[in-house]
Design a protein that fits this description.
By secondary structure, the protein is α+β, with helices and mostly antiparallel strands. It has a five-stranded antiparallel beta sheet. It has two domains: 3-101, Ribosomal Protein L22, Chain A; 107-210, 4'-phosphopantetheinyl transferase domain (Ribosomal Protein L22, Chain A, Alpha-Beta Complex), CATH 3.90.470. The longest helix has 22 residues, at 134-155. Strand 5 (84-90) and strand 6 form a beta hairpin. The radius of gyration is 17 Å and the shape is globular. The protein has helices spanning 24-27, 34-41, 46-61, 114-118, 134-155, 162-165, and strands spanning 3-10, 13-19, 69-71, 77-79, 84-90, 93-99, 104-110, 166-168, 177-184, 187-198, 201-210. The protein is 28% helix and 35% strand.
Length: 212
């Protein structure tokens, strides 16, 4: 079982990370609801299918089944027992974060040069002109994207813009955390977000808890 890492960032909250090394057939051993089976069969990419199935294995590790998971009309995942969950997968890694006390968001991204071409769509690129090393710039922008994605998953509100409404404060790689501000519908709130890097991937997660 390639459970890659388990993290308990705070009481009543756990992160489970899976490294997807199995074939589709090896992963396709979990009971799936009719809705999940239809979603799986509708995926054209086997990589996407394997990511979908690995999430179901992570649910089992956490003590849940596919039947315990459902999605609202905005596509946000929920657990039937009322615990909060967020889900992510990227290439060979997938992860879930579960909390019994607060809404959570998580994102895993592969560090790729592609992010340099799309950075202007989600952040103010002038903030990173001091970085002359492309590798460091890719790493930093990937963390920024992950932070915004994690907070977006918590909010999941129509009209919330990565570029216009979510701002991530600058940080060093050694910090392993930063703050982000969400300004939306006349409300402005700041949050702590955390990140870690492994094997060329970045994982970022956040809690729906305001900074004082």
């Amino acid at each position: 079982m390639p459970l890659y890492k388990t993290i308990t960032p705070k009481k009543n909250t756990t992160i489970y990370i899976w490294k997807i090394t199995e074939s589709f057939n090896d992963l396709n051993t979990q009971f799936l609801t009719e809705n999940s089976l239809n979603r799986l069969n509708g995926m054209r990419s086997e990589l996407h299918q394997r990511g979908f199935l690995s999430i179901r294995h992570l649910l089992k590790v956490a003590g849940y089944s596919d039947d315990d998971l459902y999605y609202d009309n905005l596509g946000k995942p929920h657990l039937k027992d009322g615990n909060y969950i967020s889900i992510t997968h990227s290439f060979i890694f997938s992860a879930i974060i579960i909390s019994s006390t607060t809404q959570v968001g998580i994102d895993i991204e592969k560090q790729r040069d592609k992010i340099l071409r799309i950075a202007h769509k989600f952040t103010t690129t002038e903030d990173y002109n001091h970085l002359t090393n492309d590798e460091d710039l890719v790493r930093k922008l990937t963390i920024v994207w992950g932070a915004k994605e994690s907070l977006y998953k918590i909010y999941e509100q129509e009209g919330l813009s990565f570029l216009q409404h979510i701002h991530v404060e600058d940080f060093t790689f050694d910090d392993l955390q930063t703050t982000a501000t969400v300004t939306f519908k006349e409300n402005k709130n700041s949050y702590l977000v955390y990140f870690l890097e492994f094997e060329g991937f970045t994982c970022v997660y956040a809690f729906d808890e305001l900074l004082n």
